[in-house]
Design brief:
6 helices; 78% helix; mainly alpha; 153 residues
């Protein structure tokens, strides 16, 4: 039987907590801090495992929505049109969120080269609107790490 990812993470957490951390000298402040940080990250990863698939699907849906909105507004010269075609191809297949986002970035870069001024303005507004919503979801996803004071209050 192969141990589950959760059991393997538990084993690493126990090793760090019960063996490594107590063995560190009191003067090893940085090593102690980093070991505790690693333990915290492992605990968060373990808690997020059951949610990863849904999170990644949501990221992909958001990337597709942003891509579709930009494609609907895209106007420009040959550089922009080439990026439009490439993004359309990505959107036509089952590309993951990161692949679609790479196509979005390419379209935004192309729009800066020869996009019509209306598209350049719209692309900024569209991107900010979509990414503000995505950023809030990402902040919630990483809230258990405690880095975002607003998400932990």
């Amino acid at each position: 039987m192969t141990p589950s990812i959760e059991h393997r993470l538990d084993s690493v957490i126990r090793a760090l907590s019960d063996i490594i951390l107590p063995a560190l000298p009191a003067s090893a402040n940085l090593a102690t801090e980093q070991t505790r940080l690693a333990i915290g990250h492992l605990k968060i990863l373990k808690a997020q495992i059951p949610l990863v698939h849904d999170f990644e699907e949501d990221e992909t849906r958001d990337a597709r929505a942003l891509g579709e909105a930009l494609l609907a507004a895209a106007q420009g010269g040959p550089v922009t049109q080439k990026a439009v075609s490439a993004l359309r191809e990505l959107m036509a297949v089952s590309a993951c969120g990161s692949e679609i986002n790479a196509g979005v970035v390419a379209l935004l870069d192309a729009g800066a080269v020869d996009g019509e001024s209306a598209f350049q303005r719209q692309s900024v507004a569209i991107t900010i609107e979509h990414e503000a919503a995505r950023a809030l979801k990402d902040r919630k996803w990483f809230a258990p790490m405690g880095f975002d004071a607003e998400m932990n209050s």
